[in-house]
Structure formats: C-alpha cells, structure tokens
Amino acid sequence: MKRNCYCLIFALTLCVAGVSPALADISGAAQTKTIEAPKDNTADVAANWTIDPDRSSITFGGSESGNKFQGKIEKYEAAIVFDPENLEKTAVLLTFDMYAAKTGNASYDGALRGAEWLNIDRFPTAQFKLGAIVRQSGAAQAGDVQSADYTVTGDFTLAGVTKQISFPAHISITDRHQAEARADFTIPRLDYNIGRQADGDGTIVSQDITVNVTLVAH
What's the pTM? Predict the structure, then answer.
C-alpha cells in the first residue's frame, strides 16, 4: 500500500470524553491524570486528510434519574495527520463547539449548557490534542483494507479542565484513500467538575459518561 494512502485523521473525544499515562491499558474505560491546562490551544497541525461529516459522528450518553439519554456533538473541526508506518509523526488537533452538543431533549440541553454543568457560555469549546499513539496489534490485511488496534493518548480540555486521557481505537485504511477510526470508552464527568455542585454523588446523573467516536476520512 502506498505511503500516501497511509495517513489518517483520528479523533476522540468526545463531548464529554477520556485516560491514563499507561499506554498498555486498552480496556475501554477512560482513565485520567490531571495536568496543567495548555497555554496555547492552537497547535499547528498540517492536516492531510479530510473528515466526511455525513459518515462521521461523535456521540455521548449516560442516564438521568434512571432514564438513558444520548447526545451528539454536531459541529467540530479536525486537523490530523496519521501514518501507520511512521507513528511518531502523527498529529491530531480536534476542537469541539460545545454549543453544538445536543441530546434532542430541550430540558436536558438547557441544563447541560448551564454553569453547574458544561458552563458553555464561559467555555464554548472543548479540545483534544494528541500526545502519542501506540499500535497494540499487528496490522491485518483483508483485500484492500489494512486495519489495526491502537492506544491513543493526549490532552483533553473540557469546561476549563485539562486531563491527560488514553483510550483504545481501531483504525482501518483502504487503497482507495479512505480511512475509518472508531473508539468507544467512558469518562468520569466529575474529573472535569461537570455537575459537581448540582449532583456530586451521581444520584441524578450518571458519573460515567460513555463516548462513541466514528470518523471517516479521505
């Protein structure tokens, strides 16, 4: 497979997304380590892939008073370079418009934007900046598709709090210059002080928020 077919844009995230400095942990449960918030959130990433928004999605979910809910981040920007033969050159910068984080429930969405939760008026964007990516399995070839499992680690900033996060991802690339990245994991909302005052013990809203990422790029 030619080199220019090997470069991929990868996300995470997550509206309310997660993990640990230990790259070997790919259990799917996001783990966090507090670090100093980045002073410059405008990293220079020369993207070589373009995300297909119609085939990509970043969703989140949890429960409120025992009722499950799911939401979606409808607007985000991505600048990502990925080459499975040259992982140290990988660069990812994702910026999420938190005003576009919606559940479709007016009551939920109104509360979500408030100061007790995501505090969107003060922190209108969230951001993920890649720190490292490690292959966890050898690349498998099926026809024109090459795929492998990875552990992705980086800095995630949400509601003014930055954590170092790590999560498993599956990435596939085809000879037709198409790429797909998938990641599913959970994050503890209290790590980002989300709802700490309103529901710090998780009586109403689940403390763990699931994040599901699918990015398709060309």
Answer: 0.76
